[in-house]
Write a structure and sequence with these properties.
Blueprint: E1 6-10, H1 17-21, E2 32-37, H2 44-56, E3 60-66, H3 70-73, E4 80-83, H4 96-105, E5 108-113, H5 119-131, E6 135-139, H6 141-144, H7 151-154, E7 159-163, H8 165-174, H9 187-200, E8 204-209, E9 212-217, E10 220-225, H10 234-247, H11 252-264
Parallel strand pairs: 1-10, 2-3, 2-5, 3-4, 5-6, 6-7, 7-8
Antiparallel strand pairs: 8-9, 9-10
Length: 268
């Protein structure tokens, strides 16, 4: 089978070096990112995503947290802004009033996780993804809010999924995709399945499997071989990918592929 749709790169030899040299040097032209996440018992993900976005070269980043965290982190995390929370400390439905205008300000929104498990937060995210038409990235437990009934959001364009193979399995099962994503798939079967999956659904996908990170966009697939076992990768990759994507909105495959390489190299 001719797999002309499949490209390969290494972290030290990005597939699209011209994209790196043409990056904006002035912060005013480097884009705006909104990071959303956190609950009363944790805000590590949104805080780290903010830090990684800055390392990736974002122009301006803002972070939206539940107001249950305000007393705890308000003084130590000056970049945090706050929206209404539930009694248990997760985002409440009323947070939509802050979330939508902040997302409208941004060039992209990253749901970074640490959202906890809360039915009100689930309703908030459903309403937000229904009303928000901009570039949206999902990572970590933010993805889990959509795996049970993914049909609506899987039909949404301008959506980036930075996911584990287990989460990809659930998404595929939820939309009844013809090929099951399994842990014992060899690389050729996996690449072929990603090719078909990304042709079927308009979102963009980044997944780690078989010692590589894969990017799949509109049928195109790129694999980046890892030098070792990278256990913690989704949040960092999501932050870098969000920045590169919003800075190159007309080139999602090139942007996300380059983001994977630069994030592995710890360069921006």
């Amino acid at each position: 089978m001719d797999r002309a749709f499949w490209s390969k790169q290494t972290a030290d030899k990005p597939l699209f070096p011209d994209l790196i040299w043409s990056r904006p040097e002035n912060a005013a032209f480097a884009g705006k990112l909104l990071v959303v996440g956190g609950n009363l018992y944790g805000f590590t993900n949104p805080a780290n995503a903010f830090s990684e976005a800055r390392r990736a070269g974002i122009g301006t980043a803002r972070v939206l947290l539940p107001d249950a965290l305000q007393k705890t982190v308000g003084k130590v995390f000056e970049s945090g802004e706050f929206a209404p929370s539930t009694p248990s400390g997760s985002f409440s439905q009323r947070a939509l009033g802050e979330l939508l205008p902040m997302a409208a300000w941004a060039d992209a929104t990253l749901l970074a996780g640490d959202l906890g498990r809360n039915s009100e937060t689930a309703i908030l995210l459903e309403k937000f993804t229904d009303k928000y038409n901009g570039a949206l990235a999902l990572a970590c437990d933010a993805v889990d809010y959509f795996t049970a009934s993914p049909a609506a959001i899987m039909a949404r364009p301008e959506t980036l999924w930075v996911i584990s193979l287990a989460q990809l399995q659930k998404l595929g099962t939820g939309v009844r995709f013809t090929t099951a994503f399994t842990f014992d798939m060899d690389i050729l079967r996996f690449v072929d399945a990603l090719h078909e999956f990304s042709l079927t659904y308009p979102g963009y996908f980044i997944i780690k499997h078989l010692g590589s990170i894969f990017v799949a966009v509109q049928g195109k697939v790129c694999s980046t071989r890892l030098a070792g076992d990278l256990k913690v990768w989704r949040l960092k990759t999501a932050a870098h990918a969000s920045v590169w994507w919003l800075q190159n909105p007309g080139k999602p495959f090139e942007a996300l592929t380059t983001a994977v390489a630069t994030s592995l190299n710890n360069t921006a």
